[in-house]
């Protein structure tokens, strides 16, 4: 039985992924797992030649599986595609840029063996841009308020989970995956493991504001109905402004300014409410009409369990 499945979304990483794979091999050799691991590399519509690099490596090393998606679906979708093929008792998820301290994977596995369902690296200082750090803080706040994230838990790019968790992740058939939302929907048994993040091997993050906003929307809209409650909040605020306007007009005989403020507030809150409700409706429409989180073009090498996954998944071009 395979003990470990390393899952790596790959995008513009032709120069770094061979070194990351070497780090995994060194770590598994050092910890006695050299004969019981696999690496699932998911090429997420990358414009460089990372696909060719990985297929060449897979021909030389039987523990490497290359899953090629038909286009760029995003990191979350690429991860979900990789989890479909993971056979291991434990699944370890990491990035392709070398920042994840893969040599510390035994600490994550130790936490799982002690009873946790999900274990994440906790970096005292994340080696990323101010922009992405700010996004991480907003993301943590959103998860705490909207998804009831356990107090003190911090998300990161390096984590591991059990086969029990992976079976439930495989059952997700929506078009807008958000890992935290899926995890917290069925377990709170989540722990952090302190470790130090590595420097990127080269290049810089491809995350943009648009991608971060899209990720937040997946969490807000896809796994919670709390944003709908904002309609009631805005209604209460508008009612308060309306009463204030009425008082000003009655007492002072002139409530024009407050009336204009009230009208502007009404217009903005109505548009916001329409946007939130429209987003829920649009996503339901897209899923109803068959929108998928990913489509697979090719998997290398061909193995019996891979064929079974593809037949069950029915998402091959």
UniProtKB/TrEMBL annotation:
Keywords: Cell membrane, Glycosyltransferase, Lipopolysaccharide biosynthesis, Membrane, Transferase, Transmembrane, Transmembrane helix. Residues 5-140 form the Glycosyltransferase 2-like domain. The keyword Glycosyltransferase applies. One of its GO terms (molecular function) is undecaprenyl-phosphate 4-deoxy-4-formamido-L-arabinose transferase activity. Pfam families: Glycos_transf_2. GO terms for biological process: lipopolysaccharide biosynthetic process. One of its GO terms (cellular component) is plasma membrane. The keyword NADP does not apply. The chain crosses the membrane at residues 228-252, 258-276. InterPro entries: Glyco_trans_2-like, Glycosyltransferase_2, Nucleotide-diphossugar_trans. This is Glycosyltransferase. The lineage of its organism: Bacteria, Pseudomonadati, Bacteroidota, Bacteroidia, Bacteroidales.
């Amino acid at each position: 039985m395979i003990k470990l499945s390393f899952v790596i979304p790959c995008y513009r990483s032709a120069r770094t992924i061979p070194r990351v794979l070497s780090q995994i091999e060194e770590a598994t050799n050092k910890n006695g797992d050299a004969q019981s691991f696999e690496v699932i590399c998911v090429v997420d519509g990358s414009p460089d030649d990372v696909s060719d690099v990985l297929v060449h490596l897979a021909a030389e090393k039987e523990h490497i599986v290359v899953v090629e998606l038909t286009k760029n679906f995003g990191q979350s979708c690429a991860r979900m595609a990789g989890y479909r093929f993971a056979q291991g008792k434990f699944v370890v998820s990491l990035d392709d840029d070398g920042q994840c301290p893969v040599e510390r994977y035994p600490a994550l596995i130790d936490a799982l063996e002690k009873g946790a369902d999900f274990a994440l690296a906790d970096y005292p200082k994340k080696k990323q841009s101010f922009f992405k750090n700010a996004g991480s803080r907003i993301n943590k706040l959103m998860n705490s308020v909207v998804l009831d994230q356990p107090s003190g838990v911090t998300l990161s790019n390096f984590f591991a989970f059990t086969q029990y968790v992976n079976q439930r992740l495989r059952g997700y058939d929506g078009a807008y995956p958000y890992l935290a939302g899926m995890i917290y929907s069925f377990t709170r048994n989540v722990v952090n493991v302190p470790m130090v993040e590595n420097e990127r091997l080269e290049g810089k993050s491809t995350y943009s504001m648009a991608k971060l906003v899209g990720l937040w929307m997946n969490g807000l809209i896809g796994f919670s109905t709390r944003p709908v409650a904002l309609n009631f909040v805005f209604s209460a605020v508008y009612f308060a402004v309306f009463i204030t306007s009425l008082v000003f007009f009655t007492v002072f005989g002139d409530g024009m300014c407050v009336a204009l403020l009230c009208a502007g507030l009404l217009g903005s809150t109505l548009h916001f409410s329409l946007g939130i409700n429209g987003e829920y409706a649009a996503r339901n429409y897209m899923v109803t009409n068959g929108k998928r989180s990913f489509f697979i073009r090719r998997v290398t090498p061909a193995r019996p369990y891979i064929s079974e996954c593809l037949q069950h998944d029915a998402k091959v071009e």
